[in-house]
Amino acid sequence: MTIAILDPFAGISGDMALGALLDAGVERAWLDGLPARLGFPDVAVRVARVERGAVRATKVTFDIPGPADAHGRHLGELLAIVQRAPVSEAVRRTATAAFELIGASEGQIHGLAPERVHLHEVGAVDAVLDVVGTVEGFERLGVERVFNLPLATGSGWVDTGHGNLPVPAPATTLLLEGVELRHDGPISGEATTPTGAALIRVLSEGPPPERWRIVRNAWGAGDRDPDGYPNVLRLLVAEASAEAGIVEIIATDIDDLSPEYVEPLREALFEAGALDCSVWATQGKKGRVALRLEVHVPPGIAEGVVDALFAHSTTGGVRRWFANRSTLPRREIVVELDGSVRVRVKVWDGPFGTRLKPEYGDVVAAAGRLERPALDIAREAERLADIVVRNGNERRNGVKEE
């Protein structure tokens, strides 16, 4: 699973998030086309490599024509733009949630209905581009889950349309409810904007999992370049690491489930987050033949797996306990056979060498398309994967670590 970990040690804003996404590998052409897709064809995109302190980072700037005071809009207008945007339903839902949070926080502060809030700092066209762009950028990066480290809010005062306000501003404070903050370091000024706070709320699940492996670092620059610290957002693209750790084991005996429904049950358990699932025959009450099912689950998501087990089986109860789990580091390579048919191959790095195993489902599908025996396909995929590993070309062959 590819995950993203936002490290807002100097705060977060929409342009910082977009810069970090481009630095992580999202295509520049996609961002260049974003304003026109959202109905702002006159907006130009500037992308630059800049220095913030000792860090080289990517800076995104939207050049919006017209006087600055023309960019304020009501929340209802922004929501309408998001609703008609040509984006996936997941992006639309998340971006809508971000603006609803912004409207609710501003409305609570100023005593207005959320849809009538005139969003001064966050209601500009660039806020729409920042929010929709950031949400869609994570989708394009292939990130499945987003987490964040403690967030810096800044210090001092900020000049707003309502006069000078303490940092974080009242609406930003409401948006940061439930978010872990940090108060160390030399961060000054408004480090986290309302847009940045809303993005953290709708994108992040909170602190990252206990074990993970960094794939690459990326840096997005803010507007200011203060002395004493780099005004950047760090984005860590990572893979969840399960080589070792504590797992919860969930087990049950079932003597009244037709065996043909075992595979749909297993699929539902994996969909809910199970790491492993084993089933074997045993003997139940009164000599009845039964099935013993044992599932290994990360502790944080065990309840969802238990719910799936109850929903997709006939069991009336389960047993649960914790155990230590150790596995070899695993990654995945994609190799290409004749006719552009692709097969995924699992790669384990053991103490005495590398182990390879083609993905069974891909092998069967490839055998059908190429009209060849599945065993031959498996052998060829393993041979090609071995060449890739030995030549060190994994990054050019769709490697995915787990």
What's the helix and strand layout?
Layout: E1 2-7, H1 14-24, H2 28-37, E2 44-52, E3 55-63, E4 73-74, H3 75-83, H4 89-110, E5 118-119, H5 125-141, E6 145-148, E7 151-152, E8 154-155, E9 157-160, E10 163-166, H6 170-175, E11 181-182, E12 189-190, H7 194-203, E13 212-221, E14 232-240, E15 244-254, H8 262-271, E16 276-283, E17 289-297, H9 302-312, E18 319-326, E19 330-336, E20 342-350, E21 353-358, H10 360-370, H11 374-391, E22 400-401
Parallel strand pairs: 1-6, 7-11
Antiparallel strand pairs: 1-14, 2-3, 4-5, 8-12, 9-10, 13-14, 15-17, 15-18, 16-17, 19-20, 19-22, 20-21
**In which range does the helix fraction lie?**
25-40%
Label the structural class.
alpha+beta
pLDDT averaged over residues? 89
Regions with pLDDT < 50 over 5+ consecutive residues? 395-402
- Number of helices in the DSSP assignment: 11
How would the global form be characterised?
Answer: globular
**Total beta strands:** 22
What does this structure look like?
- With 402 residues, the chain is of the alpha+beta class.
- Helices cover 34% and strands 32% of the residues.
- A hairpin with a 2-residue loop joins strand 9 (157-160) and strand 10 (163-166).
- The chain is globular and about 80 Å long.
- Residues 395-402 have low confidence and may be disordered.
Structure summary:
It contains 11 helices and 22 strands. With 402 residues, the protein is an alpha+beta fold.
Keywords summarizing the entry:
32% strand; four-stranded mixed β-sheet; 22 strands; alpha+beta; four-stranded antiparallel β-sheet
